[in-house]
Amino acid sequence: MFKRVLIATAVSAMFAAPAFADVTISGSAEMDLMYKTNQAGTNGKGKVAEEIAVIVNIDGTDKLDTGDTLKWRLAQKVATPGRYDSFGQREAWIGYETKFGEVRFGNQFSNQYLEMDGFANNGSGNLWADFGSQQVQYANGVSYFSPKFSGFSFAGQYDLGNGRNSARAMELTANYTGYGFNVAAGAAEAKNGKSASSEAGTFGANGKGWGNSGDFTVGTNAENKLRTYNIDAKYKTGAFDLAAGYKRNEWNGAVDLAVAGQKTTVDQFLVAAGYTMGKNNFNLGYQRVQDSKTDGTKVDNGMNVLNAQYNYTLSKNTVAFAQVRHHMLDTAGKASVMTGASQLDGFAIGSDKKNATRLMVGTWTAF
């Protein structure tokens, strides 16, 4: 009996020991009020809209006896109106960080997408990051992030897909920071995802939404392959920020596009400039979406986009902003290879309108 008491006490003490793993909570809260012109289903009229987006990240780290670090993240974006998603659909991964780099396993963002989304801030991200052949998220991802070497680093990512080579996604990205420059480049390929379209999304989601990969079945004898290439560069000198970027989108095979064919390509160019004076920040940008080419034939569906944003710092964590972005279509109603109004601020694709404008004011807070 005495031995049993000793064993029970030892086991109890083992599991009652204080946890030394560090857990932090971070995220952001954004409030947007907007007016959008030439909306779908309004006979060419505009709409007023509101969006509240709260992102919550729960991160944990544990220092291992080997000196390495085990890391994990559980994250979610709660958006209104009409949607409340469960934790982990945004991110849910476990990583191991060593002096040789870091590997991550699980549901995670595409590193190429994160770079393009961060590059195209202040109003141009709807076309640079959310439109195209790239993937946003790898639900069954395996990633490697290198250490920095004199300002240079690289990363490789792979989505297991259906566990066979018949359906998978992969990418390689690189970054250099130094002498006022930040240069990033990436190349990605996704093969046989059922959700393949002109809208960047979760690889193979199959209608199941974020954090799910689907079954990757694209139909009898139907296959697809999507490729994305990009290079972005920023330069900061004094109060000025300058940026320029290029992106190429390629869709092959069975893909949901506004223009049907075996191979479709779209090239994009972006230039931007910013100026900061005290708490005030001014930004201007121009983006060109070239005419698409399907099976070698050019389609007159390109567009020019202007965006401007003013930011005012309210505190060390909060910024108030006013933004405008204006899309000018080469041909009325034809917005590149987009198939849905949501891809262009609700614009009535297929209408007799050539312009789409969004005006927005709001605040963004980090915590």
CATH level 1 name:
Mainly Beta
Structural class: mainly beta
CATH superfamily: Porin
| SS elements, strand count | 19
**Overall pLDDT score:** 92
Organism: Iodobacter fluviatilis
Keywords: Cell outer membrane, Ion transport, Membrane, Porin, Signal, Transmembrane, Transmembrane beta strand, Transport
Domain Porin: 8-327
GO molecular function, one term: porin activity
Describe, in plain words, how this protein is organized in 3D.
The chain has 367 residues and is mostly beta strands. A hairpin with a 5-residue loop joins strand 2 and strand 3. The N terminus is likely disordered.
Q: What features would you highlight for this structure?
A:
signal, 19 strands, mainly beta, Gram-neg_bact_OMP, globular, ion transport, Porin, 3 helices, 16-stranded antiparallel barrel, transmembrane beta strand, 367 residues, membrane, disordered N terminus
